[in-house]
């Protein structure tokens, strides 16, 4: 049996276009939002000036410590709340400018932080060097000391709350999902499901086969049904969220064999005979000058599985890894978002430490660490005290705070940090006061 492979153009152009579409939503914000973010020079200058001024003493938390040694297990949000009434004002307290916020000075367990008061303003300083810069001079007595900083910087949020959402969900448009390579068969023909350590076979679209070549992806995520994310205001589909089932590695790309189809035992029923009185249609004859090729699917090995995989599941390239250390801060531009989805099986309401999807993303200037106030949408009701029974709209009420930790082009994922009452689809998220 002789195998052949599609031409170089199909090998490189088509799969790379699919890869670009799938990874566009998962690129870090610095690659896309920085270029498209509509911040005016005046707004930028104001933000720089405010950041350099620290925070007023009235913004400090009532029991803010004079100094604090960062411990393993701390998060940036927790420390911010320890020093500030509004944790999203951390950039001002730390004296950051806009560049620092996007590439923050990392804080490590073992660092000593202390408050510095200058007039009616307050700053937070580190006694040890930050990013290689020397800290303040400290006089110590001559005795043995061990002061090693942890190798890993402090995460912004509790990792176990958001880790699955940093690696699993992928939001793409419907065309990308429908054109993604699909599992067509399992190595063990007697089985209908595969899991970690098993092998399966995959085919891509006719014009974009799944090939293995230098520069093309070999690590993939496997998804099942794509859930449409609908804007609760406009009804527009903002994207499709794939149901993550696991990861796979491409062992061998698609190819074709020149073995004659007639040599393969046919499993199809014989062709139906024409009805009485109908003219018999002669089947088209194959062009003897052209080889009759049969497709050979690509081979994948299942690396990990959250659920067992089956025929019909789709593959999308593994996106770049999201980073976890970023600064909680308020958006520079006005934001009015809505909750699109509350994550969880059959979950209608969200509370503290739960994940919601909102209808704003990279194209709207949303960034890692953006903190938004959650408003419960005021209901409409009939004024029973009015003889005319007029319909009135109750005002929106502040209900909590959420922080964005992952963005796609048109939607973002946010963790609910605080909530007084349950949050549901349609609730608003706006700039914090």
Quick overview of this protein structure:
This protein has helices at residues 8-24, 29-36, 41-52, 76-83, 90-94, 98-102, 159-167, 174-178; strands at 3-4, 55-56, 67-69, 112-118, 121-126, 171-172, 182-186, 199-203, 219-230, 237-252, 255-257, 294-296, 298-305, 314-317, 336-342, 355-358, 371-376, 380-382, 391-393, 397-407, 412-419, 428-430. With 433 residues, it is of the alpha+beta class.
Folded structure, characterized:
It is a single chain. The chain is built from 8 helices and 22 strands. Residues 7-39, 129-141 and 144-149 have low confidence and may be disordered. The strands form 5 sheets. Strands 6, 7, 8, 9, 10, 13 and 14 form a 7-stranded antiparallel sheet that branches. A 6-stranded antiparallel beta barrel has the order 15-16-21-20-17-22. It has helices at 8-24, 29-36, 41-52, 76-83, 90-94, 98-102, 159-167, 174-178; strands at 3-4, 55-56, 67-69, 112-118, 121-126, 171-172, 182-186, 199-203, 219-230, 237-252, 255-257, 294-296, 298-305, 314-317, 336-342, 355-358, 371-376, 380-382, 391-393, 397-407, 412-419, 428-430. By secondary structure, the chain is of the alpha+beta class.
- Element order: H for helix, E for strand: EHHHEEHHHEEHEHEEEEEEEEEEEEEEEE
**What's the overall average pLDDT, rounded?**
79
- Proportion of residues in helical segments: 10-25%
* Helix/sheet category: alpha+beta
Sheet of most strands:
7 strands, antiparallel
User: For the CA atoms, what is the radius of gyration?
Assistant: 29 Å
């Amino acid at each position: 049996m002789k195998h052949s492979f599609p031409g170089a153009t199909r090998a490189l152009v088509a799969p790379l276009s699919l890869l670009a579409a799938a990874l566009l939503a998962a690129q870090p914000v610095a690659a896309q939002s920085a270029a498209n973010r509509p911040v005016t020079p005046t707004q930028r200058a104001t933000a720089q000036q405010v950041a350099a001024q620290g925070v007023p003493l009235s913004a400090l938390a009532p029991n803010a410590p004079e100094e604090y040694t960062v411990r393993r297990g701390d998060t940036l949000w927790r420390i911010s709340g320890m020093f500030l009434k509004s944790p999203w004002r951390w950039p001002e307290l730390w004296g950051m400018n806009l560049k620092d916020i996007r590439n923050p000075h990392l804080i490590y367990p073992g660092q000593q932080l202390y408050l510095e008061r200058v007039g009616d303003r307050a700053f937070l300083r580190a006694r040890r060097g930050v990013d290689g810069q020397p800290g303040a001079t400290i006089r110590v007595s001559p005795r043995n000391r061990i002061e090693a900083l942890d190798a890993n910087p402090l995460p912004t949020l509790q990792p176990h709350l958001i880790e699955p959402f940093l690696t699993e969900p992928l939001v793409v448009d419907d065309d990308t999902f429908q054109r993604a390579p699909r599992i067509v068969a399992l190595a063990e023909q007697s089985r209908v499901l595969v899991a970690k350590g098993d092998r399966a076979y995959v085919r891509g679209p006719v014009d974009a086969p799944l090939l293995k070549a230098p520069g093309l992806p070999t690590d993939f995520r496997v998804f099942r049904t794509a859930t449409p994310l609908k804007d609760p205001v406009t009804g527009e589909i903002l994207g499709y969220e794939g149901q993550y089932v696991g990861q796979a590695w491409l062992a061998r790309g698609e190819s074709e064999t020149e073995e004659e189809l007639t040599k393969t035992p046919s499993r199809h029923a014989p062709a139906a005979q024409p009805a009485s009185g109908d003219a018999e249609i002669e089947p088209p004859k194959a062009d003897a000058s052209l080889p009759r090729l049969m497709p050979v699917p690509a081979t994948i090995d299942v690396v990990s599985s959250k659920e067992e995989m089956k025929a019909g599941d789709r593959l999308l390239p593994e996106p770049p890894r999201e980073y976890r250390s970023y600064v909680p801060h308020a958006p520079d531009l006005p934001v009015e978002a809505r909750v699109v989805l509350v994550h969880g099986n059959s979950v209608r309401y969200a509370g503290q430490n739960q994940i919601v999807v909102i209808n704003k993303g990279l194209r709207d200037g949303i960034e890692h660490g953006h903190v938004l106030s959650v408003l419960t949408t005021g209901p409409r009701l009939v004024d029973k005290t009015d003889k005319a029974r007029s319909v009135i709209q109750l005002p929106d009420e502040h209900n909590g705070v959420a922080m964005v930790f992952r963005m796609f082009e048109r939607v973002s994922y946010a963790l609910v940090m605080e909530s007084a009452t349950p949050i549901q689809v349609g609730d608003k998220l706006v700039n914090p006061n």
